[in-house]
Amino acid sequence: MSFSHFLSATILLWAVFAGPVDRLFALQENSPTKEYLGFPENIKKQQTVAWQDTQVPLLRSGAESPEMITGKRAVYKLKHGSRKRTIPVVIFSDPQSGLTWAGPEQNTYLVLQEGILGFRLIGDRIDWCESLLQRDPNAVSPELTSRFEQDISGFTLLQSALPLSNVLKQENTTLLGAHIKNPWMFTNGAFSSQGATPILKKLQWDAGLLKLDLTDRTKKFAATVWIDPQTRKVKKTEEKPWSFFGDSNPKVKQ
């Protein structure tokens, strides 16, 4: 590894471990800001909560709503020097398709032809995540947990949860705020300055697109978004009437 590559990796890792706390990742800040981080492979992965049964929402191709299936959930702590992050991990195998998922916990999981894709709705964006383990039709949960422990490094888990590359971040993010014009959809109500994640009322397939019905936290505003999960691009949006800018008709964007 050249010095320039090493320096870039060190800066990226420092930014990730020094980043803000969100719903899934808890940061313990108890080290000097100029701490030497070392190489990515030195990130230690430690299981802090044992594997337990959990129910996960899985949306199959053509389905009108997600189906709850049984998987396994554990919690891992990533440590690099004195910096720490806690990441919940979910593992499951779809009995119908034989596809498997192993990776950071998501809001919902989609069955696609090439594999299972997870996503989380956070503020005005959707973060997408692919499974860290490939298809293994003969695998069952105990084998998957062993494979995850043996084959997935701390650095791989961290990069899956929080992509270090700006290119990966862009590829794995859909900005809903760029398509939904009502600014109050992503706040705690009209004229609120506090950002918030909208409520996902319904999720289903519609002509090959992923259709999301959303409301704001006060349930006064609503919008529907159609997304192509292959490209992760918004194809159409529709908003119910909102009056902040004097609009009286739903907005439809092709």
From TrEMBL:
Superkingdom classification of source: Bacteria
Protein name as it appears in the record: Uncharacterized protein
Lineage: Bacteria, Pseudomonadati, Planctomycetota, Planctomycetia, Planctomycetales
